[in-house]
Amino acid sequence: MGFEVFSQDQTRPWGGFFVLEEKDAAFFAQIYFPHLEMSGMQITHKLSPKILVIAPNKRLSWQYHFRRSEVWKVIAGTDVGVKISYNNEEPADIEILDSGSFIQIDNGERHRLIGLNNWGLVAEIWRHTDSNQPSNEEDIVRLQDDFGR
Hints:
mainly beta, 5% helix, RmlC_Cupin_sf, nucleotidyltransferase activity, Man6P_isomerase-2_C
């Protein structure tokens, strides 16, 4: 699709990700999130577009963020699940997401992305909630992690 990869990390124990160049963010959002009003998403003029690659039978940490909400769309595979805590306590039951499924996670909301039987691909953008200090990869509070991080 012509997206340029800014950075990548294929060393995550659950799979990895590709961060795309911010100059591609508007096109990325148009392709994967055409139903969202981007003016409300871009308080920092930054969406941090990313492709997550989720390995079979692996889970990201049970986590939340202080300075961002996340918007996901499953772009390949039906073997992706998510758990979200709507009461900020224990995770809800797993919700299986089919290709094309869309989900938004508010900042502070506990969540976990889960690989099921096959590899899954998820498009992600961030809504930075602090214009003076945009979120980054360190803005993760892990409450539980299968990999001891």
